[in-house]
């Protein structure tokens, strides 16, 4: 069941999945700088609820996973676990330079050097720390990816 | 008419036969055949008497009366015999026996008891009670045979007197049929005390110190009721000139109120309402069949049956209001107390006290509508509670524990037994099953009176919902399937499945019960109105959907582990602990001992109920 | 037989009305927090999105229990609009709640089971007052039938002000609003992760949301009964009460369950039962 908005050419511009993206945020051993910026994006000043975005605490309820920090050996299993407990269609947004590539911790013995070494990432949002505007922009780009994934899911059925 | 004699006297035959044999197979056949005969006889009896009005059965000869007197003497001697080993400081137990039997036997021998021929009276209420005893009771008897075999297998230190136990069950049937058919108060007294004796035999069965202690506690508490009964007989014989229950109900209130209140006192005592609740709780050490039969389905129902019979006199009196308040207090208090219990049998015991309190609440008010609800509660409660006790007994034997916390995930260990338990629990409180219908009727019936009464029922009902749903939730936790726990159950399945079907059947057929059993007794009530029947039948139909939904195939399900903050390990009952090793998580229900604990609540409840009991006797002058 | 028409209309229109009210709830909450907030139709987008997600489950049964809960909640709303017996309708709602609790238990997850336990405590706190309000309505109109209560023409709020206020207090518990949103809360809040709905995902969560809409409409309709003789005042009253609930939600923090249970019962007994006793006294002088 979907709700579709069509553009002038009769193609589906946006469906209900991108009108109501629910995010879950996980700190993969970051310094908390990007986490604070993510939380700032939820505050009234930036108000992401305009887009229908809600921060849920449970991966089963979430569509978009916001990960900060480069993943280390201790929380590799946790990241995989949370990713597996999310339902399709899902999108992973790596927030901050550490999540994108490991930043200057990339050579450390305990970090894996970026989230995409563990789970497939769909959107990269660089910055140290990434600004709330950039985070919102990344999530909106993620909405487009969500739409594509939903179309593929429907075609597979 | 002859069926009444047959039903009363026939159970003595298997009782005697069972005392003579210790062979398991012979016992099994005696029990099964006699149970079938008793059940068939009750059904035929019910068909004969349900639709008709009440009728007397005349007994012209004086032999039965003489036999009852001899029986009383023998009972008194038996009670003194079981008290023989008591320490001297508990002299008051044999003293109770001596006082009450001394008085009654004296009156009987001296001829002070008024003459009558109407010793038996049967009407729809007797027929309903006979059905309950005949069907539910006999199913429990069949269950007992299988249960006792396992019981002695597991407890080799207890002497195997199971033939005496089952013989006591049939003696009990004799007594119960006698109570529900008798019209003479002296006869009811005779059968009443036989049930006390059976209760004592069954509670003290295992001969352990706790069992004997609880048996004597039950004995003296029940003997107090017997004492009140004896006083009632004396007052009736002296002041009113009749001992016929039906005639007493038609006399003027001012004359008979005191003896009737004494009879109600005896009834409430036998029904384990507060302040007498503790004997029933102590009786839970007995083997489960006795808990199912005596202490939930039948013997305690005899107590409320007597109060129901007395309700015409109690109607519209302040004393009747007091009786209702005692019932209501027991209802709320026992429901609250059940929340703090983890022992399954204790929960069932408290729930029994609560429901009996509800029945007495209805009987104390005494309007047609509340009496309807009272009889319906009797039927539904007897069936569902017996089922619950039998299921708990089987679970205890197969898994070794009757603590609710150990029953977590029972559906993965013993699915069929769990389903019968679910039907039993649902039958106890869930709409549209029977008990809910009765509770709804009670609230409807009571709302025209003081709003205190429906409030009591509403609060008690909410408390009841809490502990039943808690239990239900515990047993349906879906864990790893384990096999082999249901293998040892043999003949007990007959009782479990039979009672489950009966639970469902009685609630589906409640309009028929209303039409054939209750209208002749009390007249029609709004419960039979078109709108209500449609609503309840709609809900019953909707209740068919859950089993259908659960049995349907589900497509496209993706199985994931439960959410444990991301630190799941392969086993869903464990998580990765702080040192990297798996640790188990566990969950325990709320038992809220702070508010609903036994130590606090019991004290207050007994105090208040004692006050109400005393008031009950003193406000009769209004 | 127009009660069948009312029944079907009620069942069909309720989700739309309930979703709209939920949307208004979120916008008003946002404005109170100096935000813009989502569009009014956001709850519908949420539910439709959830239906399109994968069916993640822990075992195959907890989704079934949610469906059973839906059936009985819908039945209770249907019975309400059909004008049947108020007590049985409330009991049907209670059965729906019980199935929801069972769904919470059966998934074998600690958050879920704890949420189910708390849901039971919420039911214990809120139920007595709702049933007492039915008793109160009977005492004034001498009938439990909703059809009769609506057409009775009496100013029910004038006789039952205490009951009404106590019902508003208890409404906070049933609508899952702070300070009483112990078992699970609206999507922007979290309690025990998500309490009883932790293991619901995809369509199950969508149905859970829909069940909440039905329940909301049921409770608002129950409030409306108090003003049944003056329909316009009734609509204004329920809108005002709902606004009050949103305000209470935004002002208060969550409390512990002892405070919830104790205060709900005290309010029930003092305001609710007190009102009824006064009424009984007046009626029987």
Question: What distance lies between the first and last C-alpha atoms of chain A, to the nearest angstrom?
Answer: 13 Å
| Strand and helix order of chain C | HHEHHHHHHHHH
The largest pleated sheet of chain C is described as: none
User: Secondary-structure element sequence of chain A?
Assistant: EEHEHEEHEHEH
General description of the model:
The complex is a heterotrimer of chains A (157), B (622) and C (285). Chain A is α/β, with parallel strands linked by helices. Chain A has a single domain (20-148), classed as Rossmann fold (3-Layer(aba) Sandwich), CATH 3.40.50. Chain A has helices spanning 16-19, 33-42, 76-84, 97-101, 132-156; strands spanning 4-6, 12-15, 22-27, 54-55, 64-68, 91-95, 123-125. The longest helix of chain A has 25 residues, at 132-156. Chain B has 2 domains: 1-314, no CATH class; 315-552, no CATH class. Chain B contains 28 helices and 5 strands. Chain B has helices at residues 2-9, 12-20, 24-49, 63-82, 92-110, 124-154, 162-181, 185-203, 209-240, 245-249, 253-270, 278-282, 288-297, 299-309, 311-314, 318-339, 344-365, 368-399, 410-413, 415-429, 434-446, 452-475, 492-508, 510-522, 530-543, 545-551, 593-596, 598-618, and strands spanning 55-57, 120-122, 557-559, 574-576, 582-584. Chain B has a two-stranded antiparallel sheet with strand order 1-2. In chain B, strands 4-5 form a two-stranded antiparallel ribbon. In chain B, strand 4 and strand 5 form a beta hairpin. Chain B is globular. The relative contact order of chain B is 0.09. The mean pLDDT of chain B is 87. Chain C has one domain (2-284). Chain C is mostly helical and 285 residues long. The mean pLDDT of chain C is 91. In chain C, helix 1 (2-32) crosses helix 9 (203-225). The relative contact order of chain C is 0.15. The chains are: A alpha/beta (157), B mainly alpha (622), C mainly alpha (285). Chains in contact: A-B, A-C, B-C. Chains B and C meet through helix 21, helix 22, helix 25, helix 26 and strand 3 of B and strand 1, helix 3, helix 4, helix 5 and helix 11 of C. Strand 3 (557-559) of chain B pairs parallel with strand 1 (55-57) of chain C, so a sheet runs across the interface.
């Amino acid at each position: 069941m979907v709700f579709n908005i069509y553009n002038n050419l009769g193609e589906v511009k946006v469906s209900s999945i991108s009108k109501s993206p629910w995010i879950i945020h996980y700190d993969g051993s970051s310094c908390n700088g990007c986490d604070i910026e993510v939380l700032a994006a939820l505050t009234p000043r930036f108000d992401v609820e305009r887009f229908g975005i809600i921060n849920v605490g449970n991966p089963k309820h979430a569509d978009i996973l916001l990960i900060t920090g480069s993943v280390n050996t201790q929380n590799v299993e946790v990241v995989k676990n949370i990713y597996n407990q999310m339902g399709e269609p899902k999108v992973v947004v790596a927030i901050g330079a550490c999540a994108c590539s490991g930043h200057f911790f990339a050579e450390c013995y305990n970090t894996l050097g970026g989230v995409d070494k563990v789970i497939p990432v769909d959107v990269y949002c660089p910055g140290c720390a990434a600004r709330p505007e950039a985070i919102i922009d990344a999530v909106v780009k993620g909405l487009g990816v969500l739409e594509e994934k939903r179309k593929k899911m429907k075609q597979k059925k | 008419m002859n069926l009444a004699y047959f039903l009363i006297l026939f159970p003595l035959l298997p009782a005697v036969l069972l005392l003579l044999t210790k062979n398991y197979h012979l016992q099994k056949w005696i029990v099964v055949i006699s149970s079938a005969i008793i059940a068939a006889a009750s059904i035929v009896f019910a068909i004969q008497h349900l639709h008709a009005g009440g009728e007397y059965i005349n007994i012209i000869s004086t032999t039965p009366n003489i036999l009852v007197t001899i029986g009383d003497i023998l009972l008194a001697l038996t009670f003194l015999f079981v008290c023989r080993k008591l320490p001297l400081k508990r002299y008051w137990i044999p003293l109770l026996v001596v006082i009450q039997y001394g008085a009654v036997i004296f009156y009987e021998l001296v001829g002070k008891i008024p003459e009558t021929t109407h010793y038996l009276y049967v009407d729809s209420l007797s027929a309903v009670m006979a059905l309950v005893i005949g069907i539910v009771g006999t199913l429990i008897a069949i269950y007992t045979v299988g249960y006792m075999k396992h019981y002695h297998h597991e407890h080799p230190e207890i002497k195997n007197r199971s033939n005496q136990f089952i013989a006591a069950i049939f003696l009990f049937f004799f007594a119960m049929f006698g109570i529900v058919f008798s019209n003479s108060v002296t006869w009811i007294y005779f059968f009443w005390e036989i049930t006390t004796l059976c209760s004592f035999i069954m509670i003290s069965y295992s001969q352990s110190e706790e069992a004997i202690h609880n048996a004597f506690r039950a004995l003296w508490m029940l003997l107090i009721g017997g004492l009140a009964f004896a006083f009632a007989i004396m007052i009736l014989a002296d002041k009113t000139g009749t001992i016929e229950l039906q005639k007493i109900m038609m006399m003027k209130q001012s004359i008979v109120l005191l003896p009737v209140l004494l009879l109600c006192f005896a009834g409430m005592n036998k029904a384990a309402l507060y302040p007498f609740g503790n004997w029933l709780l102590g009786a839970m050490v007995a083997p489960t069949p006795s808990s199912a039969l005596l202490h939930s389905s039948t013997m305690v129902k005899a107590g409320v049956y007597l109060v129901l019979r007395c309700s015409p006199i109690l109607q519209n009196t302040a004393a009747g209001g007091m009786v209702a308040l005692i019932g209501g207090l027991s209802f709320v208090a026992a429901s609250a107390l059940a929340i703090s219990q983890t022992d399954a049998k204790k929960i069932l015991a408290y729930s029994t006290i609560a429901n009996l309190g509800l029945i007495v609440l209805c009987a104390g008010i005494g309007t047609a509508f509340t009496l309807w609800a009272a009889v319906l509660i009797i039927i539904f409660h007897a069936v569902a509670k017996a089922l619950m006790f039998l299921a708990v007994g089987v679970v205890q034997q197969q898994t070794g524990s009757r603590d609710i916390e150990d029953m977590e995930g029972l559906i993965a260990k013993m699915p069929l037994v769990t389903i019968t338990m679910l039907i039993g629990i649902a039958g106890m409180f869930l709409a549209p099953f029977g008990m809910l219908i009765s509770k709804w009727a009670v609230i409807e019936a009571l709302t025209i009176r003081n709003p205190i009464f429906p409030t009591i029922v509403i609060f008690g009902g909410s408390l009841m919902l809490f502990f039943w749903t808690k239990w239900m939730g515990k047993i349906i936790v879906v864990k790893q399937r384990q096999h082999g726990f249901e293998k040892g159950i043999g003949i007990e399945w007959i009782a479990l499945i039979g009672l489950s079907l009966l639970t469902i059947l009685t609630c589906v057929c409640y309009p028929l019960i209303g039409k054939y059993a209750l209208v002749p007794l009390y007249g029609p009530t709004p419960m039979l109105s078109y709108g209500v029947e449609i609503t309840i039948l709609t809900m019953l139909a909707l209740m068919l959907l859950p089993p259908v939904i659960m049995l349907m195939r589900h497509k496209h399900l993706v199985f994931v582990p439960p959410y444990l903050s991301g630190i799941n390990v392969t086993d869903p009952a464990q998580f990765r602990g702080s040192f990297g090793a798996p640790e188990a998580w566990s969950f325990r229900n709320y038992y809220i001992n702070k508010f609903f604990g036994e130590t606090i609540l019991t004290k207050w409840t007994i105090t208040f109920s004692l006050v109400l009991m005393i008031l009950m006797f003193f406000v009769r002058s209004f | 037989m127009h009660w069948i028409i009312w029944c079907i209309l009620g069942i069909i229109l309720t989700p739309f009305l309930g979703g709209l009210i939920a949307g208004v709830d979120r916008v008003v909450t946002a404005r109170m927090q100096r935000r813009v907030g989502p569009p009014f139709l956001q709850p519908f987008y949420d539910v439709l999105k959830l239906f399109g997600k994968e069916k993640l489950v822990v075992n195959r049964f907890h989704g079934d229990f949610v469906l059973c809960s839906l059936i009985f909640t819908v039945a209770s709303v249907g019975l309400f609009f059909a004008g049947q017996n108020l007590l049985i309708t409330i009991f049907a709602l209670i059965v729906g709640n019980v199935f929801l609790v069972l769904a919470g238990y059966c998934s074998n997850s600690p958050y879920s089971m704890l949420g189910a336990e708390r849901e039971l405590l919420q039911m214990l706190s809120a139920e007595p007052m709702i049933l007492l309000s039915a008793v109160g309505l009977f005492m004034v109109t001498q009938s439990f039938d909703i059809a009769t209560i609506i057409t009775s023409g009496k100013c029910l709020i004038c006789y039952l002000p205490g009951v009404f206020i106590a019902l508003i207090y208890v409404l906070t518990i049933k609508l899952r609003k702070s300070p009483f949103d112990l078992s699970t809360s609206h999507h922007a809040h979290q309690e025990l992760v998500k309490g009883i709905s932790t293991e619901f995902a995809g369509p199950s969560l969508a149905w859970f949301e829909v069940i909440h809409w039905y329940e909301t409409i049921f409770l608002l309709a129950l409030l409306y009964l108090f003003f049944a003789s003056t329909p316009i005042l009734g609509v204004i009253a329920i809108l005002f009460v709902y606004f009050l609930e949103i305000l209470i939600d935004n002002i208060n923090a969550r409390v512990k369950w002892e405070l919830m249970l104790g205060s709900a019962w005290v309010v029930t007994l003092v305001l609710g039962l007190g009102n009824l006793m006064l009424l009984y006294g007046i009626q029987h002088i």
